[in-house]
Design a protein that fits this description.
Residues 433-455 are annotated as: Disordered. This is Choline-sulfatase. Belongs to the sulfatase family. Residues 22-329 form the Sulfatase N-terminal domain. By secondary structure, the chain is an alpha/beta fold. The protein has 2 domains: 23-347, Alkaline Phosphatase, subunit A (3-Layer(aba) Sandwich); 357-430, Arylsulfatase, C-terminal domain. The protein is 25% helix and 17% strand. It has 11 helices and 19 strands. It has helices at residues 2-10, 48-55, 69-78, 107-113, 177-192, 215-218, 226-251, 289-292, 319-327, 343-347, 416-430, and strands spanning 23-29, 58-60, 63-64, 117-123, 142-146, 157-158, 161-162, 165-166, 169-170, 198-203, 258-264, 293-294, 296-299, 308-310, 314-315, 357-361, 365-370, 373-378, 395-400. The strands form 4 sheets. A 10-stranded mixed sheet has the order 9-8-5-4-10-1-11-13-2-14, sandwiched between helices. Strands 16-17-18-19 form a 4-stranded antiparallel sheet, with helices on one face. β8 (165-166) and β9 (169-170) form a beta hairpin. α2 (48-55) crosses α7 (226-251) and α5 (177-192) packs parallel to α7. The N and C termini lie far apart (79 Å). 54% of the residues are buried. Bound molecules: calcium ion (CA). Residues 30-31, 68-69, 208, 265-266 line the site of calcium ion.
């Protein structure tokens, strides 16, 4: 009896309380320079709210995304590299007759199986030519914002078509889109917090071109010039919105139960003129670090160590399995995943779960990172109007990112074995790619009055 009692004490009959499912707030900036926020070393532009959020959690120093907008969104929503979706070249342009393929089981669909309320507030950019491709048909309970990139921040028009929607129906809320997105995100938090777990995805169209902002935001930057000054104001406006979102989470009493993720969807365009990617090479639309290694942080009070820095390489595709595992979702992607659960890397300091990370593969280019080594191959320029054409002779660059993080000197000729290894891995991925879907604008294309709605 004494022995049984001892066993009973060691193994209590009452099961441990299951971990509480966190609310997830994912704030995605658009075309943000890697080094423009204070938490990534920026000094010119004031981002106190984003910095405060980052300081409360982990900064991701080697978080990789795709070189442009749509593919990064496809990657994190599916856990699969965009070359599997035909989205590896360019973005989903206004006239595109395709989107994120419908056989993908995307993140909000998985989270709903774990009891989550799901909302997208901001930019979709994954297809709007047919209703089945719109967010409310793809696992989002609620949608607010726009489908295209690069819309006018005040008129909400892109290429002559109106592009502002609520629950995938035209909406005429007036105002600066960064303000509208922040306001709606706050409203969503107020309405859902404390009523079960929620996933709130907030892809701001800030700080993407066209560079537009109410004048009061640029007043803080008298020393900056031209588009850089406007961009700084736009980032300040987005930072203010981030502050409002975090405040709403705190005010509703769910901060301890909320995981925040902040990232850019690609590196800064026009680095050195408009954006600042720090010392990292090049910017948006390239496979150099300035194009794909972005500003990012994750914060969850009490779970992720405040002030920590994760230097292990991770990729946007990892969010899918990481978040589904965290939330106990039971139904997920039926298709093979590229992403891996990075939670142990972030909270326990474990190494990256990846043997290698594909940065992209197209008929004209490709890049892959394995350990400290990175291979970049270029055969020609990726052209969304002719995405399956292959270019000329292949140029190969090999970098050791530990010794040369800014990709100044290729080591390809000195390390033929390493080139062979990485090129073999890259070719292995390339063989699995489906043809890029991008096409030129059809000559007879007529812009609808409202994007996503048939005239
Ligand atoms: Ca972008």
């Amino acid at each position: 009896m004494a022995l049984l009692a001892a066993i009973a004490c060691t193994f209590p009959a009452v099961a441990a309380e299951p971990a509480k499912k966190p609310n997830i707030v994912f704030i995605l900036a658009d075309d943000l320079g890697r080094a423009d926020c204070g938490f990534m070393g920026g000094t010119e532009i004031k981002t106190p709210n984003i910095d405060k959020l980052a300081a409360a959690g982990a900064t991701l120093d080697a978080f990789y995304v795709q070189p442009v907008c749509s593919p990064t969104r496809a990657a994190f929503l599916t856990g699969r590299y965009p070359m599997r979706h035909g989205l590896q070249v360019g973005v989903v342009r206004p006239w595109a007759q395709y989107g994120l393929p419908l056989d993908e089981q995307i993140l909000p669909e998985g989270l709903k199986t774990a009891g989550y309320k799901t909302a997208i507030v901001g930019k979709w950019h994954l297809g709007h030519h047919a209703p089945d491709y719109l967010p409310t048909h793809r696992g989002f309970d609620h949608q607010y914002g726009h489908y295209n990139g690069a819309l006018d921040y005040f008129t909400h028009i892109r290429d002559g078509g109106f592009d502002w929607h609520r629950d995938d129906r035209v909406n005429h809320d007036a105002g600066y889109s960064t303000h509208l997105i922040a306001k709606e995100a706050v409203k969503q938090i107020e309405e859902t917090a404390g009523r079960g777990p929620f996933f709130l995805y907030v892809p701001f169209n800030a700080v993407h071109a066209p560079h537009q902002v109410p004048e009061k935001y640029t007043a803080a930057y008298p020393d900056l010039k031209g588009e850089r000054r406007t961009y700084a104001g736009m980032l300040s406006a987005m930072d203010e919105g981030v502050g409002q979102i975090v405040a709403a989470v705190e005010k509703t009493g769910v901060r301890q139960d909320t995981l925040f993720i902040f990232s850019s969807d690609n590196g800064g365009p026009q680095p050195g003129r408009v954006t600042d990617n720090g010392k990292f090479r090049a910017g948006k639309a390239t496979l150099y670090e300035g194009g794909v290694r972005v500003a990012a942080c994750v914060t969850w009070d009490g779970k992720i160590k405040a002030g920590s820095v994760v230097t292990e390489p991770l990729h946007a595709v990892d969010l899918y399995p990481t978040l589904l595992n965290l939330t106990g979702a039971t139904v997920a992607q039926k298709l093979p995943l590229d992403g891996k659960d990075f939670w142990p890397t972030i909270v326990e300091g474990k190494p990256t779960p990846h043997a290698d990370i594909l940065l992209n593969t197209t008929p004209n280019s490709g890049a892959i990172r394995a350990g400290d080594w990175k291979l970049v191959v270029t055969r020609g320029a990726d052209d969304p109007d002719n995405p399956t054409a292959t270019g000329g002779k292949e140029r190969i660059e090999l970098f050791n990112l530990k010794d040369d993080p800014y990709e100044k000197a290729t080591l390809a000729t000195k390390n033929p074995e390493k080139v062979k290894d990485l090129h073999g891995r890259l070719d292995g991925y390339a063989k699995q790619a489906v043809a890029p879907k991008a096409k030129p604008k059809p000559k007879d294309f007529v812009t609808p009055k409202v994007w996503g709605e048939k005239d």
